[in-house]
Amino acid sequence: MTPRVSFAVAARVLAQLRRDHRTVAMLILLPALLVSLMWWMFTDAPATFDRVGGPLLAVFPSIIMFVVTSVATLRERAGGTLARLFTLPMGKLDFLLGYALAFALIAVVQAGVVVTIALYALDLDIRGAAWQLAVVAVLDGILGTALGLLASAFAATEFQAVQLMPAVMIPQLLLCGLLVPRDRLPGVLEAVSDVLPLSYAVDAVAGVAAGNGFGNGAGTDALVVAGFIVGALVLGAATLRRRTA
């Protein structure tokens, strides 16, 4: 792995995104719009929104980042761009890390927007520090990016990349504790939820929202999320193909 190469890839991806205003707007604004929609749905039940609003700050960025990065990476491979890039002194991990760095910068802006709107416009009630909530939201966006990069290695077309979203993300959405607390799930499903990254992303957000902070449990969940990010990038580098079949 060469940091200089990874930063060059990140700069290239950011240059591409700068020309794609619709994708950038979707990445930055869509999580906030979806959280706002949930607030509107529960306008007569603010306590319910306070309960689910925090976890949604983990779920929406992860799903949106997953879809965009999996399709973008598949497009690079299908168009032959990836094969041409690998004629240069660049490893697969350099490529994936560059993508992750570029979308991490987007995730910082995305988290700043969604957390600001949730706390100050929608009056989401949290007991923890706003900056800790933003840090976890950034990690969750990067998690979606890493999982999208990993999933793209198993898709041959952009349509297949989109199809992977319900296969990879919806089971995590159902089992992450957003709908039913994980300790109330049937034993087998609770065991499955214990190995799903989105479960820890939701736990980290919920911990901060409850006032636990990074020193009282939420930090451990955030570190687990970071571990999943690293693992997904390494596994993605091991499985990434230069071209589609």
Short structural summary:
Residues 14-243 form the ABC transmembrane type-2 domain. This protein is mainly α and 245 residues long.
Describe this structure in words.
It is a single chain. The chain has 245 residues and is an all-alpha fold. The chain has one domain (3-239). It has helices at residues 3-19, 21-41, 46-78, 81-85, 92-121, 130-152, 158-175, 187-193, 197-209, 218-239. Helix 3 runs antiparallel to helix 9 (197-209). The longest helix is centred in the N-terminal third of the chain and has 33 residues, at 46-78. It is globular and about 55 Å long. The mean pLDDT is 87. Belongs to the ABC-2 integral membrane protein family. It is found in: Cell membrane. Residues 14-243 form the ABC transmembrane type-2 domain.
Question: Describe the biggest sheet?
Answer: none
The secondary structure category is mainly alpha
The 3D shape can be described as globular
Distance between the amino and carboxyl termini:
26 Å
Radius of gyration: 18 Å
The number of domains is 1
Q: List SSEs in N-to-C order.
A: HHHHHHHHHH
Rounded average pLDDT? 87
Count of DSSP strands: 0
How many H/I helical runs? Answer: 10
Please state the oligomeric state of the protein chains shown: single chain
Low-pLDDT ranges:
none
The share of residues in helices is: over 70%
Measured by DSSP, the beta-strand proportion falls in under 5%
